[in-house]
Write a structure and sequence with these properties.
13% of the residues lie in helices and 40% in strands. The protein is mainly β. The strands form four sheets. The chain has a five-stranded antiparallel beta sheet, with no helix packed on it. A five-stranded antiparallel beta sheet has the order 8-7-6-9-10, with no helix packed on it. Belongs to the CvfB family.
Length: 277
């Protein structure tokens, strides 16, 4: 079956004046227009193509790979706004449509928006929605505490930053756990710090508890090596200075320094930390 919004591996069946027709193992066919046809090919060669609907609402294939596929999230630029809705750049000739009803906030030309791509059952076409939370569900979690997860930064709140977790759930990183600049659409790794009542997810960008010591120790060692074996930081340094230098909290800094000191990898002096040669 040829699937809209996905990468399909199809075979070249025959040529036509408009391009070549591709076929799947169920004898379904789709046109690959001339502009995407390889310079040299043979019948029955296999091609990886993305399939969507053209302006005539007919399935069409392209060898261009979009920035977003069906059931995915991505940060896309709004190319234009019309009386019908917004049209987003997703890397293909035909733009991705986002109806006004699917805009969390009214989109503007040139703006960047985190959206979800899905198949509209009424029109059978791929559309975008910036109302991303409605495509996330925490009722049945597929993750557990202390598990590493994939994150997409969604939107800020008064107490932190909301994130999409494993493309399925919504989580929150509290302000006091953020030690780097985060922007909407950023993709990064995180840890499930805690699952609170109601399946609310507390996410951290570092390991939790004792799990946090070794990665932070490695970060300090790398900083020492990059700075000729010396860091002008001590337990009396301000949290801000530690955050700026190492992107970690003062509490985690002290734990990591303690670990390195016990291993005799560093010396602690009044003016800072020295790498043991």
């Amino acid at each position: 079956m040829i699937k809209l919004g996905e990468i399909n591996t199809l075979e070249i069946l025959r040529e036509s004046e408009h391009g070549v027709y591709l076929i799947d193992d169920e004898d379904n066919q789709v046109l690959l227009p001339n502009r995407y046809v390889p310079e040299s090919f043979m019948i029955w060669d296999k091609l990886d193509v993305f399939v969507y609907l053209d302006n005539e609402q007919r399935p069409v294939a392209t060898t261009d790979m979009p920035y977003i596929k069906i059931n995915e999230f991505a940060l896309l630029r709004c190319n234009q706004v019309t009386d019908y809705g917004a049209f987003l750049d997703w890397g293909l000739v035909k733009e991705l449509f986002c109806p006004f009803s699917e805009q969390a906030f009214k989109m503007k030309q040139g703006g960047w928006y985190l959206v979800y791509c899905y198949l509209d059952e009424k029109t059978d076409r791929l559309v975008a929605s910036s109302k991303t939370n409605r495509f996330l569900d925490n009722n049945e979690l597929t993750i557990s505490e202390f598990e590493e997860v994939d994150l997409i930064v969604s939107h800020p709140s008064d107490i932190g930053v909301n994130v999409i977790v494993n493309k399925k759930h919504i989580g929150l990183i509290y302000k006091d756990s953020i030690f780097r600049d985060l922007s909407v659409g950023d993709k990064l790794k995180g840890i499930v710090k805690k699952i609170r009542p109601g399946n609310k997810l507390d996410i951290t960008l570092g390991q939790v508890g004792y799990r946090n010591i070794e990665p932070n120790a490695d970060r300090i060692m790398k900083a020492l090596q990059d700075d000729n074996g010396f860091l002008n930081l001590t337990d009396k340094s301000s949290p801000e200075a530690i955050k700026d230098a190492l992107q970690m909290s003062k509490k985690n800094f002290k734990k990591a320094v303690g670990t390195l000191y016990k291993k005799r990898l560093i010396e602690i002096k009044s003016d800072g930390i020295y790498l043991v040669e």
